[in-house]
Amino acid sequence: MKTVYWQEGVLYLLDQTALPGTVRYQACREAEEVAQAIRDLVVRGAPLIGVTAAYGVALAAWGFDGPEPDFDRRMQEVFDLLASTRPTAVNLFWALNRMKKVYTEHRAQGREQVAVALLQEAEEMFAEDVATNQAMGDFGEKLFAPRVTLLTVCNAGSLATCGYGTALGVIRSCHREGKLAMVYACETRPVLQGARLTVWELCQDGIPVTLITDNMAGTLMQQSKVDGVVVGADRIAANGDTANKIGTYMLAVLAHYHGLPFYVAAPMSTVDFSLSSGKEIPIENRDPDEVRKVMGTPITVPDVPVFNPAFDVTPNRLISGIITEKGVALPPFDSSLAALRG
Ligand SMILES: CSC[C@@H](O)[C@@H](O)C(=O)COP(=O)(O)O
């Protein structure tokens, strides 16, 4: 099942807000609809946000029917709009930069040629992402011994990417090699990507999964029920500090205390070499109602003040390794990530 696909000038997004109860696609004909879908978590996960935004740019070029002099202005407006959707996942800006380059290179050939080249680039990004995740999964799998039980948070799987997943890609490869005993999935409040998406995705593939609420991770480790933690990333600074779904830092601290390995799995496009440390990573704050409600149902006093950062930053010293498509970076990350970048 594809998370995103293009058909005859329309972009179809697998609506992740409706999963697991309903499997449906949202059809987008305008870049504005794509931007809103990214904001609303219809599509989410750093790599998928990037590729979806790339398709959004292609959509704008394909759908443009205004006078020629307005084309450049409209395309700049769309680039800016898509860039404004979610600030933390650096793959968004990475993908838009790639699209900007293609746009600039083909602009002189006319609007139709630009539109064709932009769509081709988005399709290439989609295919590359799947291959990247498979490579990452295979590097990551080698880090674990047979009968391994792993803990993960949020959804860093097929649903967060164009297929196979990052953290769940590593888990898929462990399963394929017959090494995986169990995955524990944190439910991941406030919007339950773990309970709704990770559990659904793993069940679809027959991968053994046990759901826990986020506050059960400590006792799970204390009772020696897990051998390690694998998570995805939204942005990794040059020194390895990693922004990922809120709650990731808590797991890293717990893993450290219990002497368990803590791995981040992410493509090199998630590493932001322009930032020297995680302190510089912009963190998205989301709608307070995500915390005041569960699946739309109020659970607290209306209008209670809420703290709702979507991501936290795990300092590099709590990370055992960063699994990428080019290999596994080990501490110190400044040098190992730079070496993988080449
Ligand atoms: C392969 S996805 C990596 C991260 O983007 C993922 O772990 C995550 O935090 C997603 O957050 P979300 O808010 O659902 O977009």
UniProtKB/TrEMBL annotation:
The main enzyme category here is: isomerase
Tell me a GO biological process for this protein.
Answer: L-methionine salvage from methylthioadenosine
Q: Catalysed reaction per UniProt?
A: 5-(methylsulfanyl)-alpha-D-ribose 1-phosphate = 5-(methylsulfanyl)-D-ribulose 1-phosphate
Q: Where does the record place the catalytic residues?
A: 234
User: Annotated site (Transition state stabilizer), which positions?
Assistant: 154
Q: Which domain of life is it from?
A: Bacteria
Q: Which residues bind substrate?
A: 44-46, 86, 193, 244-245
- GO terms for molecular function, please? S-methyl-5-thioribose-1-phosphate isomerase activity; translation initiation factor activity
This protein's pathway reads: Amino-acid biosynthesis; L-methionine biosynthesis via salvage pathway; L-methionine from S-methyl-5-thio-alpha-D-ribose 1-phosphate: step 1/6
HAMAP family for this protein: Salvage_MtnA
**Protein name per the record:** Methylthioribose-1-phosphate isomerase
Species, as recorded: Syntrophothermus lipocalidus (strain DSM 12680 / TGB-C1)
Task: State the organism's lineage.
Answer: Bacteria, Bacillati, Bacillota, Clostridia, Eubacteriales
